[in-house]
From TrEMBL:
One of its GO terms (molecular function) is hydrolase activity. Belongs to the metallo-beta-lactamase superfamily. SUPFAM superfamilies: Metallo-hydrolase/oxidoreductase. Residues 56-260 form the Metallo-beta-lactamase domain. Keywords: Hydrolase, Metal-binding, Zinc. InterPro entries: MBL_superfamily_lactonases (IPR051013), Metallo-B-lactamas (IPR001279), RibonucZ/Hydroxyglut_hydro (IPR036866). CDD domains: OPHC2-like_MBL-fold. This is MBL fold metallo-hydrolase. Pfam families: Lactamase_B (PF00753).
Amino acid sequence: MTHSSTRSVGGIEVIALRDGAMTAPNGLFPLHDMDRAVAAAKQAGDEYDGTSVTVPVNAFAIRTGGRVLLVDAGAPDGYSGSTGHFGEALAGAGIAAAEVDTLAMTHLHIDHVGQLTGPDGAARFPNAELVSGAGDWAHFHSDEVYARANTRARGSIDVSRRILAPYAERRRDAQGETPLAPGVTMIPLPGHTPGHSGILIEDGGEQLLIWGDIIHSETFQLAEPDWSVLFDIDQDQARETRKALFDRAASDRLMITGPHVRFPGFARVERMTRGYRLVHEG
C-alpha cells in the first residue's frame, strides 16, 4: 500500500503521509443516533457496521521556498494495530528528518505528536522548531487539567508530555493567524483543543486547507456537523467552528484535507440535503 501522495498548490508541494488508522466506537460521538448514523454513512458512501467507524491517521509535509515543514507526526508506537507507517511514509516521500525546519502542529494530542521522538526519547527532527496554536502547550502541561482528567486521559497527556519534552526549548505559540513560510499560514480553529489550528496553503491562485481535527469521521460528521466528539475540549465551540468551516469550504470550493480524512484526503466540501459530504479528488 502507498503511504505517501503528493499534490501541488501552485508552486508549493504538499505530501500526504499515511500513518494508518484506528477504530472509533459509536460512543466517541455523544449525539450518536443509529438511524442518523446509517443515513450519514450511506450519503458518504461508506460502510458502517453499526458499532464503529474507521478513523484514518495522516500527517503532511510541505515543500516551499527551499523549506520543509511537517504538519503533525502520526501516532506513537503501539497506538493501534494498523498505525505505525509514518516513518515509512516520510522516507517514501524522500524527506530526511534533518531537512525539516518547522513542525506545524494542528494540536498536541498523541495521535498527532506520536513520532516527534525516536525509541530513545530523543527528538527525531533535530533542526526543527515546534509551532502550535496559543493555549495548546499550556493546556497539555497544566496541573489543573491533569488533575481533572480521568485515568485514560492522564495516560494520553503523559505520552504527549514525554514526546514533546525534547522540543521545550525550541518551540513557540502561534498567536492568531501566523505565517510560517512563503504561502503557509497557521490559522486558529478552536474547540477541539484551546490552540487547535489549521494550516492554509496558498500559491498561484490556488488554496488548500489542512483542517486538523475538524472531523474524526467523514462517515458521520459531514452529514451531521452537530456531532462533536468526546475529546473536544469545548464541544459547543468545536461544533460552531466545524459548521462555519463547512459553510466556507462549500461556498468557496476550498480544497481541504486533514489528519482524519480518508487518505490521501484531498477533497472539496459539497452541500447536501442532509448537511454535507466530501468529494475526493485524485
